[in-house]
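Data availability excerpt. The first of two example chains:
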Amino acid sequence: MSVVRVVSYNIHKGKSASGGHESLADLRLGLYGLRPDLLFLQEVQGRNQRHGSLDAQHESLAAALHMQAAYGRNAIRAATDHGNALLSRYPILYYENQDISDHRLEQRGLLHGVIQVDGAHVHCLVVHLGLFAGGRSRQVHALVERIRRLVPDSEPLLIAGDFNDWSNRLAPLFVEQLGLVEVFAAAPQGVDEIYRLRHRVAQLRQRMPWFPGQMLRPLPTLSANGHGARETPPPRTFPSMFPWLRLDRIYQRGFAVRRARVLHGAPWKKLSDHAPLVAELELP
């Protein structure tokens, strides 16, 4: 049995959420404190010829965190490029970046890496989907086709990133066609979450005496095969200063979910325009 800590984060090219100040140094410290085993990163600059401190961000983070790195270059400019990155404490056996751009104005890629966790091959796909619904749908179909072609049903699978799917319309494609489960729909409710819910109910009862008071029961949790998942929407992650839109996801197959959380507040609300997701997954 292995417990894998997964982080998905759109790092905004190493710039802060407000003002565009460089945040890469603080971001390194924040990620180091999370002790991740796998990092699914979006908007990573692989090249910046104007500002050396923002160059090769995947290599800088990997060196600081003692992880291996794979980078998929998507958007290429005269002096810069950026894309997705996969950082891993486990050996990266193979990786490939597939172009899934839907039009010339948005260069998007699908970074597919295979890592080895205690003898098991785990497929990791880092995604950053487009801003338009039609393009996102076509990109997800390309993702589904790749998984069906290259990922055996018996091997664990992780898909994480910025889906730009604020309406959550793409979820059925992942759940029904690939047997995936979003981690927040599977994670057990922790003591802190139960406490917050009870506190909110108590506040409502004080303000509105007619509000019905009910015992809060733990909701069903997820087994490794996905049975018992709740119909829980993904968390709000954007903008990080005042999260409202549900843009980021971690989907899994073949794991049991121990815990999932979104990191709001300091320092995360200043490091990027997205809030990071953290999940602890158990590989049987």
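And the second chain:
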Amino acid sequence: MDLHAIKEYMTIENIQELLRSYRAFGPLFGISLTLVEAFVPVLPLFAFVMANAAAYGLWAGFFYSWLGSCIGALLLCLIVRKYGRHRFFSFLNKHPKVRQSMRWIERKGFGPIFILYCFPFTPSALINVVAGLSRVSMKQFMLALMLGKVVMVLMISYVGFDALALIHKPIRTIIAVGGIFLLWYVGKRIEIRLELHKK
């Protein structure tokens, strides 16, 4: 079965059926779905997160999706950081846009990584690889990853759990935007403290 066929099969309904079938494994299967997506970005993260929320409930589904996604992203970043100078990654190191992205992330640190992770359709696998190739500190990367994924996964989980509420209760949308700003601000304050501690 090729990747296109797998992607076609991975509808929310089919994933929910899979989750019901693997209920005996508890949350392991739901966590594994989002973890694997970090390494195979053609898989539909949006559908995985929505299905987890529908299958396990809003908060449990959110946590399992967030945990798997963070673990997968961190593993990929660490692998790239360890083997980044290997011949396999040499073409990425030399690519002008990748090098430009690396310099941007190194200069700005927490901010751009957090913002990119907040949005569900950004190529998170590419962010993980670029962060791994760059010299950005792992503390900054992990902080931005965990907080950014909170925003993104929670938004998708909420849509999967109760899509109509976004239309009928716009106050929740305003709260979500406020939450994004609050997480960004908290992340920046922690980053400043980390930098001061380093000095």
